[in-house]
Amino acid sequence: MIKVEHISKKFDQIEVLKDINLDVNDNEVVVIIGPSGSGKSTLLRLINHLEVATDGYIWIDGDDITDENNDIQSIQAKMGMVFQHFNLFPNLTVLENITLAPKRVKKLTSEEAEKQAHELLALVGLQDKADVYPKSLSGGQQQRVGIARSLAMQPKYLLFDEPTSALDPETVDDVLDVMHNLAKQGITMIVVTHEMGFAREVASKVVFMADGVVVEEGTPEVIFNTPSNKRTKEFLSRVL
Amino acid sequence: MSFSYEMILDYAPYFMRGLLYTLGFSISGIIFGTILGLVIALGRMSNIPFISVIFKLYISLFRGTPLFVQILIINFGVVPVIVGHSNPYIAGTLALSLNAAAYIAETFRSGIQSIDNGQTEAARTLNLSSFDTMRFIIMPQAIKVVIPPLGNEFISLIKDSSLISAISAPEITYWAQAMNAQYYIVWTPYLTVAVLYLILTLTASRLMGILERRMAKSD
């Protein structure tokens, strides 16, 4: 499980996260919602060490990723990340994007890595796009490649940083469908998103953040139907 | 202004040999300068402050002093310490390479830093080592960005090689000066070498253009 304890983060003097606590149990889908600038993405980036916390602990299966004495790389290896802007490697084909890390890091043979990549591409519905470059794909297709690329490293946890925010509306559903399927397969996911429909349907737990604090958390039913905090109500009335 | 074709014929064999030397100095400067430049760029971007400072110092030193002075120091100071006497071939190659490397390093650095940070972040979340990230992701993208300015560096280097005539390296400017001294004529020798440099630099920029187009095709 992932346990975030008393995490705070300052950029210069600006405190973007204040004393955050969050539990993510295995096989759960935790969806983090909230207005822009609430620190959602920063929290995600702290969890997999793309940013370094100012204070607090983040336990990944009992190992603290904020402790530089730990083997950060091996803790990071448990987590995959899907980015808002996909961050595919434009100089590599779709297949190469997916096989590079398994070959270089996990030392799979080309055949093994490619077999796995084709299976993953089938999973995200892009089996016929293996040999094209990312540039020729739509945003939604690129994001699905991004998901396949993360899955190729067989992470235990998958973190999504606003995966559909940069997409054309008509390609959003394809990506959400893939994420929905992954959730059904029991992959533990933390999803930062503005897709309330997805949160309502798929989340085991919804976390509402604003101004760098967790304002309220609970099951989707509780958060969406009977939110107790005034700010949660205000936010939901604006986005629903 | 007078231009004597007969005198050119007289000196043609020297200009031919000189041209080979100019080419040799330029090409070795380009090769060593590029390799060294890449190493310096990576060192300059090191996270270890001590290493980064050393390479920064190197770049400031070579960009902040005249190439001509560097050539003199290397020929009459550095090379004699290493091989026992001055040697224009070693000194010329060394000076051109070391000087070009400083400029090329900055070109590489700006190319590498122009690649979106999201690429490095994605690589990190995939557990790729920083070496693999550089080799498979950053460099292949940076090379494309770097080729046009690198072409400019190469052209400067070809022209700058004329300075090593001052340490009696027998390249084309050296022979132009010799011809000038022998016949007391100005236009014929110097216009001849000017045309030769122009041919070299135009060829170089043509080649870089071809390379640039070929690189652009692959994405």
Reported by name, the CATH topology of chain B is MetI-like fold
| Largest interface, Cβ cutoff 8 Å | A-B, 25 and 18 residues
Low-confidence runs of chain A (pLDDT<50, min 5 residues)? none
Helix content of chain B: over 70%
* Mean pLDDT over the full residue set of chain A: 96
Count the DSSP helices of chain A.
Answer: 9
Task: Describe what this molecule looks like in 3D.
With 240 residues, chain A is an alpha/beta fold. Chain A contains nine helices and ten strands. In chain A, α3 runs parallel beside α5 (139-151), α4 (110-123) packs across α5 and α5 packs parallel to α6 (169-184). Chain B has 219 residues and is mostly helical. Chain B is built from eight helices and no strands. Chain B is 83% helix and 0% strand. The interface between A and B is medium-sized, with 25 and 18 residues.
How is this structure best summarized?
With 240 residues, chain A is α/β, with parallel strands linked by helices. Chain A is built from nine helices and ten strands. Chain A has helices at 40-47, 72-76, 94-104, 110-123, 139-151, 169-184, 196-202, 220-225, 230-239; strands at 2-11, 14-24, 29-33, 55-60, 63-64, 79-82, 157-161, 188-192, 205-210, 213-218.
Features:
heterodimer; A: 240 residues; alpha/beta; 6-stranded mixed beta sheet; 4-stranded antiparallel beta sheet; B: mainly alpha; MetI-like fold
